[in-house]
Amino acid sequence: QVQLVESGGGLVQHGGSLRLSCASPDITLNTYNIGWFRQAPEKAREEAREGVSCVNSDGSTYYADSLKGRVNISRDNAKNMVYLQMNSLKPEDTAIYYCNTNSGYWGQGTQVTVSS
User: Fold this and answer.
1) Is residue 94 within 8 Å of residue 110, measured between CB atoms?
2) Digit-coded pLDDT (tens) for 28-45
């Protein structure tokens, strides 16, 4: 079983920032495409997860239009970590944030709550 572990979520005020982290004790993250997805509280089904950002194994990146300019994805290969820096957070960014691999592994998620 491959583990992905997200961390860094929390409660932040409107306009605040958070940095989410994705780690794995089992796989080398930079050999996969690593994506960040989120699931808002009113969308309970797994298929309702929204893609936020992705860093591919070749280093190319993708950002959802709704967050472009407010988020930055990066990797630290030495630490085997992928980060999602989120700035200018809005209440509508409130969700559970998950990282995943293109091979279908998912973490358990980290809760981000943005107060108005």
Assistant:
1) no
2) 999 999 999 999 987 666
